[in-house]
Design goal:
The protein has 4 helices and 2 strands; from the N terminus they run αβαβαα. The chain has 176 residues and is mostly helical. It folds into 2 domains: 49 residues, no CATH class; 104 residues. It has a two-stranded antiparallel ribbon with strand order 1-2. α1 packs antiparallel against α3 and α3 packs antiparallel against α4. The longest helix is centred in the middle third of the chain and has 68 residues. It is rod-shaped.
Amino acid sequence: RLGVRVRRGYLMPSVRLSAGIYTSYYRNVSYAGSATPFGSQFRNNRGEYFGVTLSLPFLSAGNWHVLRQARNNWQTSLIDLDDQRRKVHDEVAKAVMDMQGYERELTQMSRKQESDSVAYHATCRQFEEGMLSTFDLQTSARTLLESRVKTLQMQMLLVMKRRLVEYYQGEPLVRD
């Protein structure tokens, strides 16, 4: 916007006044010894001038082109600003949706971990009674450990997304 105002100012007419006094001194070497004294040459060769210049830049098509270009640049920057705001809004909305999705997944993984834990204890009891092999016990233990690992991963991802959403809401990313 400032660029447009500056360019518009360039289109305003201007008046320039100038004035001055000048003189000169010279020595003619062809006439030996007959040089005119400095004081008389200073007075005789003196001249004055006065000038007025009127500039009308709004008559130049190039200046109008520069103004249009400044307006176009300003409008382009406004469009870019709106685009960046929209992108930030989309990122915030995506982070909130991801956080809510991780909360739901964490709830499901907690339920799965509980059921895998119950299944593991039942498998242990059946193994102690000799009804299952060690392979079945190890498979049940592996399933329980995998569900615990996935639950921890979901907790970690949820904490990260929650911190990101809080950061977008204005809270500091790193806490003391």
